[in-house]
Amino acid sequence: MSGAVVDGIDFDHRAVILCKPDAVVRGLVNRILGMISDAGIAVTDRMDLVAQPWQPHVVYRDLLADTGRRDLRDLPAYIDAAYAGQTITVALAHGEPGVHARIRQLIGHTDPTLAVPGTIRGDFGDDSTAAARAERRLVRNLVHTSDDPAGARREYGTWYGPGRTLRVSDFDRCSMILCKPDAVQRGLVDAVLERIAAAGVTVANRMDVVVQPWQAHVHYWDLLVDADWFPDRNIPQCLDDAYAGKPVTVALAYGEPGIHPLLRQLIGHFDPTRAAAGTIRGDFGNDSLEAALAEKRLVHNLVHTSDDPDAARRDFGTWFGAARRDLLTSPTGVPLQPAHANR
Question: Which of 4, 44, 94, 202 has the lowest tally of Cβ within 10 angstroms?
Answer without folding.
Answer: 4
